[in-house]
Structure formats: C-alpha cells, structure tokens
Amino acid sequence: MAKISSRIARIGIVVIAALMVETVALIQYFSVRRVIEDDNFVRSRIVLGAMRDEVSHKLELVELTMQENQRNIRQALGRPDSLFRAVEHLIDDNPIIVGGCLAFIPDYYPSRGRLFEPYVAKNEKGFHAEQIASPHHDYTLNPAYIQVMEGHGPVWSDPYLYGDSSPRSLTTYSFPVTDPAGKTVAVCGLDVDLSWLGDVLNARQHFRSSFALLLTEDGKLVAGPPAGRTPEREVLRVLDYLSGGRLDKRFAAVPSIRLEKAPHWQLVQVYYRNELYAPLRKMHLLHLSLILIGLLMLLLMINRYARNEQKLYEAGIEQARIGSELAVAGRIQASMLPKIFPDGVYGVLAPAREVGGDLYDCFLRDGKLFFCIGDVSGKGVPSAMIMSKVHSLFRVLSEREDSPALIAGHLNQLACRNNETNAFVTFFLGILDPQDGALVYCNAGHDRPVWLNGDTVSLLPAESNLPLGVFPDISYVEQSCLLKEGDGLFLYTDGLTEARNPEYKLFMRERMLAELSRCRELPARALVEAMLAAVGQFVAGAPQSDDLTMLYISRKSIV
Fold first, then answer.
1. What is the DSSP letter of 475?
2. What's the CATH number where 116 sits?
3. CA distance 525 to 33
4. DSSP-H helix ranges across 345-457
5. Which of 302, 433, 457, 488 is the most buried (most CB within 10 A)?
6. pLDDT below 50 — which residues of the chain?
7. How do residues 63-88 score in pLDDT, each as one tens digit?
8. What's the N-to-C CA distance of the chain in angstroms?
9. What stretch of H or E contains 479?
10. Residue 45 falls within a domain, yes or no?
11. Element (H, E) at 324
C-alpha cells in the first residue's frame, strides 16, 4: 500500500511538473508572441516608410518635370501650333507620364474657338496629338480645372481606369500655366501611369502571402497585389476593416502610413497570422514533443530511478527553457534631416534642381555627438534612394554601436546589396565627446573635413578608405584626435568646392579655407550662413550643378 501511495505520489509529482513546464511554455509562448508582434509592427513601419519614399520620389519627379518645362510652354503661348510640340516634349521627359494636355481659359485663342485643349499621348508608334475640346467635352466643368483656376495650386486626381480593351490605372497631375505677365491662362494636366506601383508594393514583402495596398486619402483603392498573389476577397476584407469593420482573425495588425505631401495617399501593410507565428508554433510543438517524451521516459523508469526524480524534474524544467531567448532585429527608423540642432552645431543642405544624393545627420546619445555627411555618385532617383537607405541605417546603427569603423562596415554591406547601378557613397562619420574633446571618426572616400584649431585652419588628418558600395568585404579603419575647447570641425560635400560661377570657374578648396579662416570666430549657424553667402556671391546666379551640404560642429557649447 505504501509503495502504491509512493508511486501515486511520484506520478503526481510528474504530473505537477508537467503542468508547471507547460505553464512556463505558455507564458513563454505569449511573451515571445508579443515580442514578435511588436517587432513586426516596427518592421512594417520600415517597409511602409521605404514604400512611401519610393512612391513620393516618383510623384515628385512628375512635379519636377512640370516645373522644369513650364518655361517651354510659356514660350509657345504665342504660337498655338507649337503647343503640341511643347506638350510632346513635356511628356517625353518622364517615362511614367503617358499623356498631357493644356486646357486654356475660354476664348484665349479666338481663332481656335471658345475652348482649346491640345492633347498629346504616347503610344507604341510614338506620339498622337489632337485637339480634344468640344461641346461634348467642356473641360471648364472639370473639378481639377476649377480648383487650379481658383488658385488652390496643383491638384492630384484620384486614380481612374482609362482605355477600352486593356484599361490601365492613371492619375492626373494638374498644374497652373501662367503667361509672361503672371496670369493663369491654362491648366496643364499630366496623365501618370500607375502600373509601376505593383512592383513598389511587392518588392519588400517578408512573407509569401503578405501584401500591401495603396489607398486614396478617403480610403479608395489605388493599387494592390497582383491577382495571382492575393485573392480579391482578401483585399476586400482589409478594405472593409479600414472603413470601420472588424479585422478578420486570419490577419495580424494592419499598420498604415500616409504620404507626407499631396496627394496624401495611404500605404497599408497586411500580414497573415499563420505566416507571422509559424516559427513560434514550430518551436512550441517541438517543445511539447520533447516534454511528452521526457514524461514518458519518467513514467517507464519511475520505480527504478526514484532517487533521480528530482534531477529528472530539474532537467525537464531546464528543457522547458530551451529556446527562451529570441534575437529580435534592431528597430530601423527612417530619419529625415535634423531640424533641431544641439548648441554649437548647425548644418544645411541646398539641393540642386534635380534629385540628388547628399545627406548629413547629427544627434546626441549618451552625452556624445554622433554625426555624418555623405554623397552618392551619380544623379537622380537611384542615388537618392540609396542615400535614403544609408541615412536611415546610420541612425539605427548609431543607436547601438560606438565604433565608426563598424558602422561604416555595416553601411557598406547594405550599399553593396543589389547594387545594380554600381553606385557608391562617399561617407564621413564621427563620434565626439564634448566633455574631453575626444573625436573618433572614419572616412569612406569623402572629402576631408576642415579642422579650425585656434588660428589654424587645416584639413583633418583622415585616411581615405574606399567609399561605401564598392566591395562588400572591406575592413574600415577608424582614427581619433582631440578637439580643444573652441575648436571646430567643418564638413562639406563637393557641391561646395565645385560650385561654378558664370565663367565656369570652381569655388575650390583654397577659397573655402580662406573663407573659413575669415569667419572662424562666428557661432555655428552664423558660420554656415556666411559660407552659403560666400558661395552665393561667387556663383553670381549661375545654375547650381550639384547638391551643396555643410555641417559645422564647435566644441564650445554642445549640450
């Protein structure tokens, strides 16, 4: 009887141990699940931020196309027949613009009738031009025309389908056209093809079934996943939730983000729970299997190994902790140029007319100033996109890393990944301790900063490592020096030294050093503004050919 009671007691201990292990496993399960949810939310914001930047860049290029061609259109106003050629040149300047028109105010050209609207469209054979205004097509009733003429500025229309046999999704950007006297005489409408949105929305999906949606400001669908990727009913369920319905239990949280500028479209990222929690479920099932096997072995050997029950129980508890630590990817946060500077620090970026690739950043962490400046080779959207990624990663890496060389190494690996354009980034980053003036820095092929040391103005001794994006397996070398109280560090891109005047002469490094020597006693902001004024006086109104970026750091009063 005592043996039976002892066996029952031992079995009870095993059962209690099993319950405890499973309780710990469940607590771990839900704790890790919460971590996964938080991490997925951050990752979604990063994905959405990258999508937003790419969509915004595309739309900004359309706006830039209109702004750069406005002079050609204004010059053609006196010759109605040449307007078709002006519109053709306008839409040929941007590959995603498929058509364009000029809707003139009534009776602007009496010989052409009350309404005159030259329209040019791209097709497989080239361009098709026609005058489309008629009594059946009175563009003066168009809401976009009315808004622009009433002085509300440029207008983006909601997307719409155009065409009969193979309709495609378009949006129209309407912009006021003024005559030499500044009077608005027409509205220019650019038809923008949105077929590229599918690639943007699906290029960065982490899971096979996840997808993204682009919606108008009031919730109408602009673009979604291809039909073969996601059934239409799934998209409709998400749209129902966003309009106030309940979220389908198969979906995880659905984060969203808006474009910062007009047309203020919304980007929405969708994940399925079964994919999001699949690794966690596998780990939990493996955990349960191991527990069951251990309990079965305990039950079969309980009489023979009674004295080892405690050890087996402890082994089970220890086994229950297997896999309790989960590496969570660092939260990457896209960052824009700093708007608030620490005392003694000031920077400025003066962009050229085309999309550029300069950046700078600075922030305080743990009492130290982290700062950087960079310039992407080449021009246009690819360079801007690469710099946007490098800029964002610098922020993230600097939140957890104190070595400029290691930060540069990580940035280089990212810049080399999928670098089909063979673009590279010249980059300088440093960490300054304002208390003792200790400066640690790494130079990845960038112009050496200027060291304002008392009455001496000289280049900082900085070894030039290879730029980011050249070769993935590069070991970067960091250096250090000591800034004395009152010393300053001036960082710049080649848009400063290569600024040209009307005679095509360069500003040059020597002139920069002379100007810095002249204004070295000024506070940070005043010094940067003085350098801007010096460059402006030198170029004397000549067109800016490259982005110009400057960052000045003084050890006087960084707090």
1. -
2. 3.30.450.20
3. 48
4. 380-398, 404-416
5. 488
6. 322-335, 559
7. 888 888 888 888 888 888 888 898 88
8. 78
9. strand 479-482
10. yes
11. none
